[in-house]
TrEMBL record:
GO CC annotations, alphabetized: ribonucleoprotein complex; ribosome
Entry GO MF terms: structural constituent of ribosome
Origin superkingdom: Bacteria
GO biological-process terms attached to the record: translation
Pfam families: Ribosomal_L31
UniProt-listed PROSITE patterns: RIBOSOMAL_L31 (PS01143)
SUPFAM superfamilies for the chain: L28p-like
The entry's keywords: Ribonucleoprotein, Ribosomal protein
Keyword Ribosomal protein: yes
Protein's name according to its UniProt entry: Large ribosomal subunit protein bL31B
Gene that this polypeptide is encoded by: rpmE2
Family: Belongs to the bacterial ribosomal protein bL31 family. Type B subfamily.
Statement: the UniProt record of this protein carries the keyword Nucleotide-binding: no
Organism: Parabacteroides goldsteinii dnLKV18
Length: 84
């Protein structure tokens, strides 16, 4: 591996899945504006929309994620084509 190209500031960071409130701690270099306290220790907090605990591929459940009405917009454009 090349020397000097990898970041040196890895630290524990909490990632929170906003769809099911699941949290997990991992090492990362990501910048976070918020913090969270877990077991008396304060960690940087990064909020994510989907993680492995809520993604349909990993859970086996089909879940429709609608962000900003995109599904409704798609259905209004293309959903009624078979009803002609």
């Amino acid at each position: 591996m090349k020397k000097g190209i990898h970041p040196e500031n890895y630290r524990p960071v909490v990632f929170k899945d906003m769809s099911n409130e699941d949290v997990f701690i991992t090492r990362s270099t990501i910048n976070a504006k918020e913090t969270i306290e877990i077991d008396g220790v304060t960690y940087p907090l990064v909020k994510v929309e989907i993680s492995n605990t809520s993604h349909p591929f990993y859970t086996g459940k089909s879940k429709l994620v609608d962000t900003a009405g995109r599904v409704d917009k798609f259905m209004s454009r293309y959903g009624n084509r078979n009803k002609k």
